[in-house]
């Protein structure tokens, strides 16, 4: 059953066993932008790097950070960003709540780091209820099962938030309650996207902030996605856009009526790693085509298959034994090697830069002609498709 059309290119439908999902309303070309989504709210991923990234736009602070004059927690990249934040991300409610939390952190020493981040989320969510009730209602409408959140966590985090939030807080039509806190935590659990730190080859890439996006939250997972998301947090953006907007582009041709899926993590994860991550973080097991194939492999077989099949396909491409459109169009990869039908994906659409493991998608097409330049959604590297 169709529910709503978030953009002319996508619609939300109910798919049995997968819940609300996004499907294409027309044939999509490689690199085509199918969604540009602005977050409902953002919140920091750590209390230790608040002077590294702006507390409003989350850009990397290049020059001396500008501290909030009222609290010891928040820093900004420019005075203009601080001024904007006073009516949005860093209102007096947020400022006072963060101040109370940081000052009394020693009393909350039993909080795990993840729970501290959840406190930041709850402050941001209740602030949204204050400044934009309609957006807060959208947040509450997103998928999220309260039973998936520990009752102990709900009780503990609500106690903390009730203590640190200003006693005079009036949420209008909403009320700061344990039930609402539990519902909010459930939404965060399955809908938050990480805004990543800049890619550095020599170290693991961290998360600078988390955001909840109203439309992107409907993308389901697939271990071989047909779309990927791009973020340009540290880039200058054109008028009418935000640097924290999520840009989603399709990787290859997609037929009308096909579900559009993202991978919730790098596609090089092994089967056991993927299943554990999905179960712990999102509460489901994956049964996509790739997982069905890999279900009985050991991790060593997984590595060997990726290496061996990748080498075979590289050799075939070098010999020009098969044209690209034949490989994609008629499924000969699947017919030729039923043990590893997705080998082509890793050769074609996974970045080969050291320690990156990002997904490649063509740049947006111009004049309906697909671009031959591929962009990595992790390191940002650009390469010609015929060089892959």
Q: Any overview of this molecule?
A:
The protein has helices at residues 79-85, 92-103, 113-131, 133-141, 151-164, 178-191, 271-282, 289-294, 299-318, 324-330, 332-336, 343-349, and strands at residues 2-7, 10-15, 19-24, 33-37, 41-44, 66-67, 75-76, 192-196, 207-212, 220-221, 227-231, 246-250, 261-262, 360-362, 373-376, 382-384. The protein is globular. It has 12 helices and 16 strands. This is SET domain-containing protein. Residues 300-324 are annotated as: Disordered. Residues 8-265 form the SET domain.
Write the layout of secondary structure elements.
Layout: E1 2-7, E2 10-15, E3 19-24, E4 33-37, E5 41-44, E6 66-67, E7 75-76, H1 79-85, H2 92-103, H3 113-131, H4 133-141, H5 151-164, H6 178-191, E8 192-196, E9 207-212, E10 220-221, E11 227-231, E12 246-250, E13 261-262, H7 271-282, H8 289-294, H9 299-318, H10 324-330, H11 332-336, H12 343-349, E14 360-362, E15 373-376, E16 382-384
Parallel strand pairs: 10-13
Antiparallel strand pairs: 1-2, 2-3, 4-12, 5-9, 6-7, 8-9, 11-12, 14-15, 15-16
Region (Disordered): 300-324
Domain SET: 8-265
Protein name: SET domain-containing protein
Number of strands: 16
Quote the average pLDDT. 85
User: What low-confidence regions span 5 or more consecutive residues with pLDDT below 50?
Assistant: 313-338
What is the chains' assembly state?
single chain
Output the number of helix runs: 12
Helix content: 25-40%
Structural class: alpha+beta
**Distance linking N and C termini:** 40 Å
Radius of gyration: 22 Å
Query: What string gives the helices and strands in order?
Result: EEEEEEEHHHHHHEEEEEEHHHHHHEEE
Query: Hey, roughly how much beta strand do the residues contain?
Result: 15-25%
InterPro entries: ASHR2-like, SET_dom, SET_dom_sf
Protein name: SET domain-containing protein
